[in-house]
């Protein structure tokens, strides 16, 4: 295999020569952990998108509040972090691998990017239906393929190129759909703004995942679960602070009391909607972090794309979103692109396993 090939289901056995705890897991234990994180990611993302759309539909209108709840519940992540056994040797290796000022700089930069990305997502969801929003978000896989190629040395084959083209066509169909089911009161110009913001957010999110993986491999040089969780916690802290500043600087905080009183489902429902939106985003974050740790950022993004098959169908039931012929065609094309991507990496996975088996067989000494 060439030097820039990194199958989606194969994790390197070490990061800069440091063994990972994954080597101690049996195959079925690894798959159980991966399955749990997949469930967290897909379920959390679908629920958070539906709750975000529900917030807007029932009278919510603060884009900064919708941005804030995407990271505000980050203290939940301290629960799995505190349950992990502490290790002084790990702390020492962390200090030697990367100085504190560089770690802080990484967290601040990534946190600011997360805050900007969340704002773009909030604007997109404000002007789009949940199903349309989810289909556009599927383009993040195409963006991640490009960013992973340049940043993470991910291979770029004919099948992956096919996937990128198909996902781009899917987004183009949504953009050109004249019968788009926009929320009430949303003009065609606002629909275009929502489309552009969601597309930009998908690109920025893909860049963010690739930068996180690059930070683990090239700067932090450690990728234990605690380090991955710490990055998620502290970048979310920065993003939350930026969102709070934006909420007060924009003056939207003055409208929150009136927004809560005028909420169609009542004040209690307003609070619960925001709380559960924040919680489900963090459930999704746990899945994202877990899959980055267990596999790669690319695999995490691939599974996130799977929500395009869940969220539009859920939106059809919950919000009675209209599934036009164009939208169904866009979904089928996106699924085709997703399948193409997964198949390519399945082939790569088999190649790597065969190569390792042959290498192990070659190291076995012949009988005397």
Summarize the structure.
Helix content is 73%, strand content 1%. With 368 residues, the chain is mainly alpha-helical.
Describe this entry's structure for a reader.
Strands 1-2 form a two-stranded antiparallel ribbon. It is mainly alpha-helical. The chain has 15 helices and two strands. Helices cover 73% and strands 1% of the residues. It is globular.
* Computed structural class: mainly alpha
Unreliable spans are 1-6, 12-20, 87-97
- The strands making up the biggest β-sheet line up spatially as 1-2
Strand segment tally: 2
User: What form results from the Cα inertia axes?
Assistant: globular
Distance between the termini: 33 Å
Helix percent band: over 70%
Strand share of the residues?
under 5%
Which terms would index this structure?
mainly alpha, 368 residues, 2 strands, globular, 73% helix, two-stranded antiparallel sheet, disordered N terminus
Q: How do the strands and helices of this protein lay out in sequence?
A:
Layout (H helix, E strand, L loop, with lengths): L13 E2 L2 E2 L7 H31 L5 H6 L9 H6 L4 H10 L2 H28 L2 H8 L2 H12 L6 H18 L12 H33 L4 H25 L6 H6 L5 H28 L2 H9 L5 H8 L6 H39 L5
Antiparallel strand pairs: 1-2
